Amino acid sequence: MPYIPDHLDQGLSVLFIGFNPSIRSGETGHHYANPRNNFWRILYNSGLTPRLYDPTEDQDLLKLGYGFTNIVSRPTKGIDDISRAEYAEGRDILRAKLEYYHPRIACFVGKGVYTEYCKRSKAEWGFQSNPFVQEIQEFVAPSSSGLVRMPMGEIIAIYKQLADYIQVDE
């Protein structure tokens, strides 16, 4: 299955970083394309986007200063299908992307993505102290997967912290 292209640019406001694309995303070539994934609804309901975007419009978010990548680029059914070697390679590739593109905020879509990236055993929601790449703020947000059992209101509230920060910082 083909990999999904990253949407990257220099100096993004936020680079959203997922585990890896779903099979549906691999089939369509767009980020967060699984209809059970809440990513696009979360962005809209938290105030990060002015309207509800469709996964086919993922490249259009570059105009808003938002980009997309994953720690592992290979589409799979789930994170259990990702090997330790893929995480290790992905960690190095992701760090190089962050250092090159230098977004203001790296938003990890899921605690597991963040802990895999920085090799820390745990993380709290929101902004992290001691960023892995200096001068890039790290923000940990809940996964948008439909499998997450956290109430949607709580998920949106965490993403709203990011939206509020961006609005104040501009």
UniProtKB/TrEMBL annotation:
<keyword id="KW-0378">Hydrolase</keyword>
<feature type="domain" description="Uracil-DNA glycosylase-like">
    <location>
        <begin position="6"/>
        <end position="152"/>
    </location>
</feature>
<dbReference type="Pfam" id="PF03167">
    <property type="entry name" value="UDG"/>
</dbReference>
<keyword id="KW-0234">DNA repair</keyword>
<dbReference type="InterPro" id="IPR036895">
    <property type="entry name" value="Uracil-DNA_glycosylase-like_sf"/>
</dbReference>
<keyword id="KW-0227">DNA damage</keyword>
<dbReference type="InterPro" id="IPR005122">
    <property type="entry name" value="Uracil-DNA_glycosylase-like"/>
</dbReference>
<dbReference type="GO" id="GO:0004844">
    <property type="term" value="F:uracil DNA N-glycosylase activity"/>
</dbReference>
<dbReference type="GO" id="GO:0006285">
    <property type="term" value="P:base-excision repair, AP site formation"/>
</dbReference>
<dbReference type="InterPro" id="IPR015637">
    <property type="entry name" value="MUG/TDG"/>
</dbReference>
<protein>
    <submittedName>
        <fullName>G:T/U mismatch-specific uracil/thymine DNA-glycosylase</fullName>
    </submittedName>
</protein>
<dbReference type="GO" id="GO:0008263">
    <property type="term" value="F:pyrimidine-specific mismatch base pair DNA N-glycosylase activity"/>
</dbReference>
